[in-house]
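Fold this sequence, please.
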Amino acid sequence: MKGVEYRAEELVYQSARLSILEMRMIGAARMERLLESGSLAECLRLLEEFGVAVRYREDGAFLREQTLSDRLSRVYEELLGDESKPFLRLWLYPYDCNNLKSVIKCLSRGVDFEGMLFNCGTIPRNDLIGAVRGHDFSLLPEAFAEAAREAAVTLATTGDPQTVDFILDRACYAAMLKEAEESGVAYAALLVRRKIDLTNLTVCVRLMRMVKPHALLRVLEQAYLPGGSLSYEELAALCEGDEEGFWKRLSRGEYGFLANALRGASASLSEIERAADNSMINYLKERRRGALGSEVLLGYLLGSEYEVRNLRILLSGLEIGLSEQALRERIRSSYV
């Protein structure tokens, strides 16, 4: 759908409608009440008070993932409706990517994958599972068909599950960027590039901490996601030497705000991922001020994605008995 035109009045109308829908989101004030709830039961009661459709099994057990999946699916249904809006639809590709990874890896090990699959995505679950089981990847969309075939063959050859992640992540982000660029919505492409950069930077830190120095650049080349503003060569230069040097060099560039938000080499990986997520959320909030059109639609969509991520962190944490302080250290900023 190259060169698609979106009528300004249509986007303005949807923006006005979404300003109403934003009122039902779990914003900062509501998240504060949830963090102070003290128990899973009270948290679920508050969620229902806030209008979240909480799902339970017949025996009364809480269905966390179904609750969250249903909430996010509703957001996509509201935004997409009967129309194909590529600049919004492309954000479903990571769910396809996750599902493909899970099925390919689990089938190779003889492990059940049902509990690992998301209901969101553009590829029907049965089609995806059938493609992997039957080794007939022609059933999949072009964006994933060749990558899924390569991932399955490479895993069977090497036995290394990490290669599945590298191959499918690269295909996923390439498809997202291509769709964004062809949609005619420049802001969508900007957000995808920013997401690619932040993912590459967090991968750099993870590899510096987990991979031996002599193998770092080789693994980074495999994990690198093209399409962002940071080239492989720039990332490799950031990774020269120790991690302290990485943060110092990063602080002088476009993503210096990420370095300045952390304690450098003493920051945990979860703190780094949280800071990267917060930088995306804050960017969405800044662009939303006084905006009409794609900024508001994309802000609401991605804000809802981060809302669901926060709810997953909160609910899973309460299920295992994490303290309020531990939960606060993991929760991301709120879009509203």
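The CA atoms of residues 15 and 297 lie 6 Å apart. The chain is about 70% helix and 0% strand.
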